[in-house]
What does this fold into?
Amino acid sequence: MGADVPTLVTCTIAVILTYYLSRQLRIYTSRRKLISENGCEPPAKYPFWDPIFGLDVIYDAIRSVKRKTFLSEKQSHYEAYGNTHSSRLTTFPVISTIEPDNIKAVLSTNFKDFELGSPRRRAFSPILANSILVADGPEWEHSRAFLKPSFSRSQVGDLATLESHVQHLLKAIPQDGSTVDLADLFFRYTADVTTDFMFGESIGSLPHPEEFGGDMAQACRDVQLGAERRFRLGVFADMVPQPAFYRSVNKVHAYMNEHVKKALQRRKLQEGAGDEKEGAKDTTPGRFVFSEEMAKLTSDRFVLRDQLGGIFFAGRDTTATLLSNLFFVLARESKVWKQLREEVASLDGRVPTLDELKQLKYLGHCLNETLRLYPIVQGTSRVALRDLVLPTGGGHSATSPIFVAKGTLVIFHLFALHKRRDLWGEDAEDFRPMRWEGEKASWQFLPFGGGPRNCIGQQFALTEASYTAVRLLQTFEAIEMRDSRPWTESIGATCSNANGVKVAMIV
It folds into this structure.
């Protein structure tokens, strides 16, 4: 009997090894067939010395973010190695591409063959584990259906609420010609608007700067920077100490938990006899309140907390960054400012309606051009769920189809896509709003993503930015640049100017 034990172990190992080898052979054969049938050729390879974990790629990315050169360095990679090239990020093979046909395939045509994957979930799960921003598959579909009604036209077009916060913004801008950082004011303004929309009561950081100053503002920033850093660290994210990140996560969660508690209290009041409970404050009758509507659909505190957190970050940062980048440009483009003022003059000084906002074509062109040159999100990614083929990027001509193995991380950098001279012309680096005259939607311009997973709050962000810009253009005769430094990247969950927007607004 004793002699049978080694024999049994040997046989077991042999069976396992045979199964493994036969499985690998089947995979190899299947992949060779897919490659041959589609005429696939490999894309160019980005040179890296660590073929296992791509540690040099991680180091270079983290270093370039600290040096505020990540965007320019990535753009130079595409220029040097082609619009589609391969590399590695920890355990993931990587395909980086800025080919519109490839992006369309990933985000739309082959949507079900990709997911956000573990890199994104690992990076953001400490702060947004139950949010639509990190969900995949049925969980994402449920979240999308859960949130979409809250972004209907009637909710997006609540301009009366916007106007009340615009008044606070106008009061915060000096009218004596002194210097002001509009970026700081825009982030406070959008925090006020977003919390009002979400919770039925604004955080009030413009009239009361201390309400969103200090610890809470810094916590939001630390959470975003920490999550992006975790993405670049990949499988090493949880091995690197991040005490400041987790302290900030706890602060943000505490803030959201307080509003979840209030929403659930209001739900109980609505379900009961309507008796007032101490500490449960009524909101304006008949007014849509995002957190209360969500609380009608679930009582899961963690789901409510993370969904609200995701909407808060997206709602606050998206519009604030867009407005900051727009006014950064306007301070340097006096002719554009003048033309915008002329267009807005058609309103005869009255506040615009939603339909009138849509008629301001030149303003729309300026917003699009701002989003092209300064995308709010510098890039995004997906993980392949099965072996498949992308339409272009392979071979010496970089036009052959390319094979993408299951588990490959496909990354596209929007700032590089939006500056391709072969797509946008030799003036691709210039701010020229009229390039949008007659321009139709295409996969070469993706400020809010594309396909089924495009940004659910896109219209909310554009409406808020348009309305705010109009009201500032109606109020101020001119804008003067007070900081001549060029736009310098600051990358977190969004991409903004590290030096703010220091200007003078002239009445």
User: Anything to note?
Assistant: The two ends are 98 Å apart (CA to CA).
